[in-house]
Amino acid sequence: MSTVQGHCDPAFTAVRDVFEQNFAEGREVGAAVAVYAGDRKVVDLWGGVADRRTGREWAAGTPCFGFSCTKAVTATAALLLAERGVYEVDGPVTDWWPEYGQNGKEGTTAAHLLSHQSGLPAFARPVTAEEAADTAARADELAAQAPEWEPGTAHGYQALTYGWLAGEIVRRNTGLPVGEFVKREFTGDLDLWIGAPDEVIERAAKLTAGRKAEGGGDAPRAVPDDNVLERLANAYLDPQSPLNRAVNNPHPGKGGYNNPVVLRAGWPSAGMMTTASAFGAFYRDLIAGRILRPETLQAGIATRVSGPDRTMLIDTAFGLGYMRPSMTFFTPKAARETAFGHTGAGGSIGLGDAEAGLAVAYLPNRMGDQLSGDLRAYRLTEAAYASL
Fold first, then answer.
1. What value does the mean pLDDT of the chain take?
2. How would CATH label the architecture of 4-72+181-386?
3. Which pTM was predicted?
4. What is the pLDDT of residue 151?
5. Which of 145, 164, 301, 361 has the most Cβ atoms closer than 10 angstroms to its Cβ?
């Protein structure tokens, strides 16, 4: 009997086939995928185990942690405020955050914060999960920190600092945490939280390592530096590398990203808890013009930076917070000109494509091998485009 449950339009059977194959070949523990074609939810599937320790099954409404998929939601909140004329995207940050103009950061714009050009890809000191819950203090800390390069002259993925940089656009201009603003303005009744209540944390899927990792072998390994992916793995293991410093600080603490301290805090860079159905509905509404005006979205997804990334050490491409197709946002050929969204470290993805009228959301609890992007997500996305 198949572990997969839910609904799939006959025209999108290829998506179900890929999803079932991922389980059959041992690539999943538990996962969910949703696809919208226009306003129609054509795929809403889930399966497997939500909590490996207890054997609790993944249910229709099981939320899952989305890692950096959160950044697209935070970016949308910031762009909504720009659309309303609250601040200028290409204007100086010091217009609304005067304390930020220290140590060579006086010329930083909001666009630099949103497109990973701030020069602040990592905190200068170790930060705990408990400290990271104090949004104002972490923003103040970054405001006082010197950049690692002149803002606007290069880009480097702000894996976690993004939340206290781009997220400060929202907090400074509304007085609300990103999660509260998002809920009030455009996620409404959707099962999507940046800062989850305890009852949501209790029934959420628990993140788990791959089977090989339990025997000590599924994490990135040191290997000869003869191609970009191997170089990425080596950098991840080097405590002094920009990549290691960016993705591991703040440290989530005991329990990793299952730590309730992190889940309650709702880091605006990587703190979203949601279901695939709700997350797909966010992209559905976004590409339909129900959250941002179409011209605002087009300006937001226009590529601002592309090429070598000072943090990731491989080529990346970003608009104003949204990933564009690149080595960290794998998309099929049909999507390469029009798709946008964001991947998450565990293999999750959220994708929108206004021209194709397609929204895709995929959330697994088995951590993938890749730091950003995952072949499970790619195969599902490829099947969704092929079904149009």
1. 93
2. 3-Layer(aba) Sandwich (3.40)
3. 0.95
4. 98
5. 361
